[in-house]
Write a structure and sequence with these properties.
The protein is mainly α. The protein is built from 14 helices and two strands. A two-stranded antiparallel ribbon has the order 1-2. The radius of gyration is 26 Å and the shape is globular.
């Protein structure tokens, strides 16, 4: 039999393993292997969050920076909605029209939360990294939610109105969730891959002079992983769209499992693990100097390098900040109130040597000298 779109390759049938794993139910219990292998890593991650919940609460109360709470809330929201989807999919009969509709709506909902988080992380890092106010965070979340909503509504409409034949199960006469169809999946994956690879090139192009780019390697590793994931996903979707190759379905299965199972732990590890694991976290994402200050070419540090010509080092930021928790994921300073005695103890040795007084609530030396002279 000839494949679709004029290809001589055989079509993907439900007998192929990579399609079989998507709908096979264990002992006819409605518990599909696909849902189970996504449920297990998410359940383990929830257990990890529960074990560290008290410590996380203490850390969040110790800082007034809202960005940590925002990312922690997004992490919890993503993993909870993913668990709910798996649990409901294991209880409904996807072969029934209502059950299949519920299953697809839940898939689209999970995609909405993950995509909103994905875009929020990048926007905070590139455009709003120097901000740490509740208003800026609300604007970012609103913008990413609207974009993600438009994406998922389009995906859900295609899923319900124009289901992809690649995900139709002939023996059971119902359609699996097809991520909006292979053409939609290919197009969106390719767009996201291009965006992420462009972000990786920013530190090496002249535009870097006008942007306060992060200099920490962890941010760029995060973007690189997403770029590779989307590029691989686009390749798999292309194989299915124009070739009906069984290997293409295996590729998109692997990328989908990685995204829906390990993306949320990746966000936690990249942006929250240091904050929750150490008593005095260092600057997780330092930024280049503001563009209103003149900079030489040798002062621009790459993401994987520390700028040795800079006038300030990471230790300077830590010592001169009002609080060790002022250094958020993306900004250098903050306004968290702190005990003045403890703040003085964190003054930079350079600032002490330069003759700067330690403001710890005592009278200034000049004030005491004037009283002695008047006496």
């Amino acid at each position: 039999m000839d494949g679709t779109n004029g290809s001589d390759l055989p079509p993907v049938t439900e007998e192929s393993f990579c399609k079989y794993v998507l709908y096979y139910e264990m002992n006819n219990s409605r518990v599909r292997i696909w849902d189970l292998i996504i449920l297990i890593p998410n359940a383990l991650f929830v257990l990890f969050l529960v074990v560290r919940f008290n410590k996380a609460q203490l850390k969040l109360r110790a800082t007034s920076s809202p960005i940590f709470l925002t990312f922690y809330t997004l992490v919890w929201g993503n993993v909870i909605i993913s668990l709910i989807r798996c649990a409901v999919s294991m209880t409904v009969n996807a072969a029934m029209p209502v059950g299949g509709l519920i299953d697809k709506i839940l898939w689209v909902t999970v995609r909405f939360f993950l995509l909103a988080t994905e875009m929020s992380v990048v926007i905070f890092g590139l455009a709003f990294g120097h901000m740490d106010s509740r208003s800026s965070i609300r604007y970012v979340l609103l913008a990413t939610s609207l974009i993600s909503l438009a994406f998922t509504v389009t995906q859900g409409t295609l899923e319900i109105i124009m289901p992809d034949d690649m995900f139709h199960i002939d023996t059971r006469n119902y359609d699996l969730f097809g991520h909006g169809g292979m053409l939609f999946w290919f197009t969106t994956s390719l767009v996201f891959a291009v965006i992420y690879f462009t972000i990786l090139l920013l530190p090496w192009i002249p535009l870097r002079e006008y942007l306060a780019l992060p200099t920490k390697l962890s941010f760029y590793l995060y973007v690189l992983l997403l770029a590779l994931l989307d590029a691989t996903q686009a390749v798999g979707a292309a194989l299915l769209t124009w070739g009906a190759a069984p290997a293409g379905l295996c590729v998109v299965d692997v990328t989908a499992w990685l995204y829906f199972s390990l993306y949320t732990p990746l966000v936690y590890h990249t942006f929250l693990s240091e904050f929750f694991s150490v008593s005095q976290p260092s600057i997780m994402f330092s930024y280049k100097a503001q563009m209103d200050e003149p900079m030489d070419d040798d002062q621009v540090s790459l993401p994987h390098q520390q700028s040795f010509s800079s006038l300030k080092t990471d230790s300077d930021y830590i010592y001169q900040s009002n609080s060790v928790y002022d250094s958020t994921l993306f900004e250098v300073g903050g306004t968290t109130p702190m005990n003045p005695v403890y703040s003085a103890s964190l003054q930079s040795p350079d600032s002490i040597a330069s003759g700067q007084s330690l403001d710890i609530g005592l009278p200034a030396p000049g004030f005491q000298t004037q009283n002695m002279l008047s006496t």
